[in-house]
Design a protein that fits this description.
single chain; six-stranded mixed sheet; 14 strands; alpha/beta; 365 residues; 33% helix; 13 helices; five-stranded mixed sheet; elongated
């Protein structure tokens, strides 16, 4: 593989002369995307953005005909005014999505970066609307609403992505769904990327998008979603996201929750004395465990037991935490009940207590 320029360095073309920058670089890692690439490139070709664009592709050792499809589109895209920059490697093993994105960014020259997965389809207004939003919100990671393909797949996840309020883009950053502004819709300035990035290059099993997302929030970055569907987000079993384990996500979410929220609270209550609530308690640092004043629940059987005892604890005496009816518990709360899974009961119970999300409670479910 040829050496690539580092992010932020001046870019040069094949002749060694500096390439002029463009308004938007579409950043696209590719790995064995032959089945979807035609539709993906068609979406890029149909953009109604009137500014200058380039497509920056890094091929991560594809073994199919992905690059043949791309080369077949090159003249058509360039005639449309979209410059095409391609590189890659042919090593025995792929180097991972984080590496590919970093390389695609490094060889690009756009003032703004539009991240595009090779198995998804951007709608014609995507670049234009996200570019306009990014000009208004230069310190923001810009996302959008999405539709899911096949239609009807991951209904809860899709509904969550599309229904989050502006405040919830921040407050629900700890849930098992991952980034509230989902990676396939990301759009940001190059300056923001250089400040936060690059992506982690740990490879398969590393959620490079969640790590970047949390680092962006640590640095005071904000989140904005264009409230239009701008991307068809494809669901399939070969997607890289499936290589990330639930335990990896749990650990990262927990660490971020303790850092950003629990370190600021003197005491709190875990909402749910069930499996997830007890797992959260066991996962907390000993000093944070001591901040848990109670569990609360709606299950009469759990409430009647009176206490939860952490039998595996090395501390003596073993932690013994009261279990209360939710109406008798004191906040703030960490909610360990999944959203949109109780027929509205959880949401109604929270509403009945007149609590404010992001102050009185956070979701960790």
């Amino acid at each position: 593989m040829e050496a690539q320029p580092r992010v932020g360095e001046e870019q040069t073309g094949d002749s060694g002369t500096q390439r002029s920058s463009v308004d938007v670089s579409i950043i696209m890692p590719v790995y064995n995307a032959f089945s979807w690439l035609d539709q993906c490139l068609q979406g890029i070709y149909q953009q109604d953005f009137s500014g200058s664009m380039e497509l920056s592709v890094f091929d991560d050792a594809s073994t199919d005909d992905s690059m043949a499809v791309l080369e077949a589109w090159r003249d058509r895209l360039e005639a449309r005014g979209v410059a095409v920059v391609v590189s890659g490697h042919k090593s025995a093993r792929p180097m991972g999505v984080g590496h590919s994105k970093n390389q695609a960014v490094a060889q690009s020259s756009g003032e703004f970066l539009c991240f595009q997965d090779s198995d998804d389809i951007m709608l014609p207004q995507r670049v234009r609307l996200q570019f306009e939003s990014s000009l208004l919100h230069p310190n923001s990671l810009i996302g959008s609403r999405i539709s899911r393909l096949p239609q009807g797949s991951t209904e809860r996840y899709t509904r969550w992505i599309n229904s989050l309020t502006p405040d919830q883009l921040q407050t629900q950053a700890f849930t098992s769904h991952g980034p509230t502004v989902v990676m396939p819709t990301w759009f940001c300035s190059r300056k923001l990327f250089q400040k936060v990035g690059p992506f982690n290059e740990g490879g398969k099993g590393v959620p490079e998008d969640l790590l970047f997302f949390y680092q962006h929030l640590r640095q005071g970055g904000s989140l904005v979603r264009v409230n239009e569907c701008l991307l068809v987000y494809r669901y399939h079993e070969e997607a890289a996201t499936h290589s990330v384990t639930e335990e990896t996500m749990w650990k990262l979410r927990l660490d971020f929750l303790q850092e950003r929220v629990l370190s600021q609270w003197e005491h709190f209550t875990i909402w749910s004395a069930g499996k997830q609530g007890r797992k959260l308690f066991r996962s907390l640092s000993p000093s944070t465990q001591r901040k848990v004043r109670a569990f609360c629940d709606v299950d009469v059987k759990k409430i009647k037991r009176g206490f939860y005892t952490y039998e595996e604890s090395q501390e003596r005496p073993k932690p013994r935490v009261p279990v209360l009816d939710f109406r008798e518990a004191c906040g703030p709360f960490i909610i360990c009940v999944k959203l949109d899974m109780t027929g509205g009961e959880l949401e109604e119970n929270l509403s009945s207590l007149h609590l404010k999300e992001g102050i009185d409670y956070y979701h960790f479910s």
